[in-house]
């Protein structure tokens, strides 16, 4: 129920970097565990370092002892698929929960709308990137990288809101801004 401290974020970033460096030494791809941890913590409610350590030791044993790994790999894919659906659904729910803390002024809504539209659009229409080299095409059609990149750029480029606009509530459009029959001056 609290925000991570700068020291905790720094430690997590270092741990991801070290894990990726070690996996690279063994010819594996870079790895990260943030979204999976968010889903698991939200699903189970367990946030103990001891549980994470026991899980890591278990995974190491599975990798070093083929018979234990074979038992784990005998779990039907449907069981794992059901768990994955719930876990990543919890990741999405946690993300939506984080978005509820955002000050939804015009600037933030524009950044969110453009990033979301670009990410979904490139994922749904991969031919938009047909002339890019192969690696850039794969990275662009994932949707995540272009959305994150455009959100960062827009956050740096777009000016901050004016003081009057910063306090204006924007919800589903410009609520209460019209001068139609429901305007405040027309009410009896």
Model description:
- The protein is mostly helical and 188 residues long.
- The chain is 65% helix and 0% strand.
- It has a domain at 103-175.
- It has helices spanning 6-25, 34-44, 49-64, 66-73, 77-99, 106-124, 134-141, 144-157, 163-166.
- Helix 3 packs across helix 4 and helix 6 (106-124) runs antiparallel to helix 8 (144-157).
**How would you sum up the major sheet?**
none
According to DSSP, the number of beta strands is 0
Beta-strand level of the residues, as a percent range?
under 5%
Proportion of residues in helical segments: 55-70%
Task: Look at the helices and sheets and give the structural class.
Answer: mainly alpha
Query: Distance between termini?
Result: 45 Å
Tell me, briefly, the overall form.
globular
Radius of gyration: 23 Å
Record keyword descriptors for this entry.
disordered C terminus, 188 residues, single chain, mainly alpha
Topology summary:
Blueprint: H1 6-25, H2 34-44, H3 49-64, H4 66-73, H5 77-99, H6 106-124, H7 134-141, H8 144-157, H9 163-166
Helix pairs in contact: 2-5, 3-4, 6-8
Give a brief description.
The protein is mainly α and 188 residues long. Helix content is 65%, strand content 0%.
